[in-house]
Structures are given as structure tokens and as C-alpha cells.
Design brief:
This protein is 76% helix and 0% strand. The chain is an all-alpha fold and 96 residues long. The relative contact order is 0.08.
Amino acid sequence: MTKPLHPTTTGAYYAQCVISFGIALAGIAIGIAYIPVDPWVRAFLAVAVLYTVTSAFVLAKCVRDRQEVGNMASRVDQARLDRLLAEHDPYKVDGL
């Protein structure tokens, strides 16, 4: 039975993603803090950004979960096929 390949991320890629997210979030926070508008508009923008960020995390989790379910189904099918092939004896004669 062959092991399925699992894509792995390097530490550098992970660090780049975290740093990029931090810079983007800090940039929008600074932009909201210094925008020349009333405090209620600033609060609305902050809540909108937080909602967008949490929605992005939830969407990423849903996409990952759906992909894992697809991989799980293909692994189950592969295990069934491997079992059938292991049990099959091409030299067995039926009826003897």
C-alpha cells in the first residue's frame, strides 16, 4: 500500500504568511486610527474589518475541511481496492 503524499509547508512560508497577516492587520488598524472621521465611523470600520478577518478564517477552515473529507473518501476507496487486490488469487480455480 502506498502512502499518499501530504503537502507540507516550510517554516519560512509559514513565517511569511504570519508576518504578512500581521502587517496587513496593523496597516488597516493604523489607517482606521488616523482617518479624519467621527469616532462612530471609526468604530464601524474597525468592526467591519474584524468581521472580514474572522469570515476569512472561517472560509479557509471550511475549504480545508471540505478538502480533507474528499481526501478521506479517496483513502477509504483506496483501502477497499487494496484489500480486494490482496484477497484476489488469480490462480484459484472455482468449483474444485
